[in-house]
Amino acid sequence: MAERTNAVGIGIIGAGYISTKYLENCTGRFDNLKVVGIADLMMERAEEQAQGFGVEALSVDQLLAHPDIEIVVNLTIPAAHGQVALQVVNAGKSVYNEKPLAATREEAQAILARAAEQGVLVGSAPDTFLGSGFQTARALLDRGAIGSPVAVTGMLLLRGHERWHPNPDFYYQPGGGPLFDMGPYYLAALMSLLGPVERVAATASASYQTRTIASGPRAGETVPVETPTHVISVLDFANGVRCSLTTTFDVYDTNHSTLVLYGSEGTIRLPDPNTFGGPVEILRAGSDQWESVDLLAGYTDNSRGLGVSDMAQALRHGRAPRASGELGYHIVDVMHAALESNDQERHISIESSFERPVALGAVQVAGGQG
């Protein structure tokens, strides 16, 4: 591989499962990135990943002090996102957090405020809305293919991660559950299309008080459920669109992802927002036939790290990243508002906002096509 002379140096904190795909893409796909090193509290995990991808294994302190690292990708567990991100920005480096940006509003606000003081950038997954699937839907919407957007229905229908995850405890603690685990994918995708949310109402419940682990060394052990596992939210977007979004770990269903955008002149079936590709389908006014839409050139496979690549370009060109910290904070704000609405039995107004990301379209961020 040719030397990446103008590439942005990145470091990764967190050498768990998800780090493999980030390392694959950031070392071999996005040519505006150069992975310098990886750190983890368990040094042996960092060393194993570093060896596999030809980068340095570093302690967290070494990584934060490394002069060649400009962006730190934070792949720690969600509960640690806020604390680690603050360490990064305090070290004078930009940070890109896996979802969610932080566990609480207060942590997210602190990250953004400190980053502004330090003159560094904040980015946040999910970046799946930058893939070809949702960028194709964005192009359809922006050119008026379904007229004015009117409403959205969304459903994430799952039985729960204890079926396959050997240590599912954190999915059932505050900050977990289907809304905080998978909701960011749905919210980021919808916000990239429709802009900010201004009001939320929700009802929520936990249908089961415990969950039984089905695999691994703890199979048969039960874990307590201490957060809602079935949440039905109504989101009022500032542009007038109304959305009903159900996220659940309580049902049996094979349609795990259903997301539909309705307009005055037609309807778009959107992709699974946990993916970068399609399919995208459109039903036009006056027709009873769904049409498959060819995806724009771009990223259709697992392109995790695309948001980091876009952030690196933003750093070089003095613009905001598309998967921005402000968008990440708005997602955190909306999710907390949904649970508060259930507890308080009222609508919750959303104070945060963000600039709708500029469409990626057919323009590549960096590297080859997906």
Q: In summary, what is this structure?
A:
This protein has 370 residues and is α/β, with parallel strands linked by helices. It has helices at residues 19-28, 43-53, 60-65, 81-90, 105-118, 132-142, 177-194, 306-317, 325-344, and strands spanning 8-13, 33-39, 56-58, 71-74, 94-97, 122-124, 149-157, 197-205, 210-212, 222-224, 230-237, 242-248, 257-263, 266-269, 281-284, 291-292, 348-349.
What do we call the CATH topology of the largest domain? Dihydrodipicolinate Reductase, domain 2
Can you summarize the main beta sheet? Answer: 9 strands, mixed
Low-confidence residue ranges: 362-370
Q: Tell me the name of the CATH homologous superfamily of the largest domain.
A: Dihydrodipicolinate Reductase, domain 2
The top level CATH class name of the largest domain: Alpha Beta
- Binned strand content: 15-25%
What integer value in Å does the Rg equal? 20 Å
Whole-number average pLDDT?
Answer: 94
Which structural category fits the helices and strands?
alpha/beta
The strands making up the biggest β-sheet line up spatially as: 16-15-14-13-7-12-11-8-17
Count of distinct structural domains: 2
The number of distinct β-strands equals 17
**Separation of the first and last Cα atoms:** 19 Å
Q: Helix proportion of residues, in percent?
A: 25-40%
Report the order of strands and helices: EHEHEHEHEHEHEHEEEEEEEEEHHE
Q: What is the level-2 CATH architecture name of the largest domain?
A: 2-Layer Sandwich
Note the total helix count. Answer: 9
